Amino acid sequence: MSESAAILTRHLSKSYFVPVRKSGFFGGLRTLISQEKREVRAVTDVSLKIRPGEFVGYIGPNGAGKSTTVKMLTGILHPTSGEAWVDGLCPQRQRQALARRIGVVFGQRSQLWWDLPTIDSFEILSAMYEVEPARYREFLKEFDDLLGLGEFLDTPVRRLSLGQRMRAELAAALIHRPPVLFLDEPTIGLDVVAKTRMREFLRQINTRHRVTILLTTHDLRDIEELCERVVVINHGHVIYDGSLDSLRDRVNLPTLLKVKYSGVPEDFRPGQYLGPEGERLDRPAEGAWKIVSIDVESRTVEVQFDRRISPVPAVLVAMQSLGEIKDISLVEPSIEDLVKRTLETPETVSGD
Fold first, then answer.
1. What kind and span of H or E run contains 173?
2. Confidence of residue 61 (pLDDT cuts 50, 70, 90)
């Protein structure tokens, strides 16, 4: 195990064997009694090196192998082949010792006691991890300041809002001050305010306490605001490892801007290009953006542009000069879009 790595994997793979489904009228029965199975590879040959204090986004479409990787790194699943170390420990052979060195938050699973007040869950976990009373009091004060725990400590977990519960889940995962934190969809289902608070907290514990964080998410904004590095996985294979900016530059997907006007300018038409000053163009030009759709009924115009060439504020100013704007929304390429284009562009496989 390299001392310079908080998380290290070498050729990590995980396969499952599932029955081969038979066709026909009695297909279900034949499948049940058949011994024929096929191999499903959830993760294949994943090699990663994450240094202490890094904040890494681990992204990919549904079924890509993200959660399976996290479960192997936390000792929940054993790999079919390959090896892994987390904070110098092997998850498969030293799971109990590792539990004291990591924190884990699964967005859809709780480690809190449903019918007990939140503070009781913290006290139980504190006793399980043998946290000293002075350190526990220090934890409560710091995390109340960071997450506002005091407002719901006496509330049963089942009565917490989703945002409150996720704040409590994060605190519970860090009650024993682990140096490594695994987050699997921690912001799923949260509103904008709750997500913002969650991101600010994660940013602080990463910078203040140098906690190494591996984050899986479908929310690209989480990655943009928090992660120095992104690893893209698809069909169990790592297809990119580098910065998000580098991935965006190489993939080069356009940003979509939706603008609702008080009235759509009469000379707008789909397929038309707009120049940097809002002038109408009939063909592409440096710094121009394209009108992709016009909905007269809702008075909404959608334009695509390249953020590397045309900064968002400049595009907004130009669009505002064309009419009275009632509403705007910015739509960035989704993680699925980035992954799809990465697969289509082999040169993006290796990062910086």
1. helix 162-173
2. confident
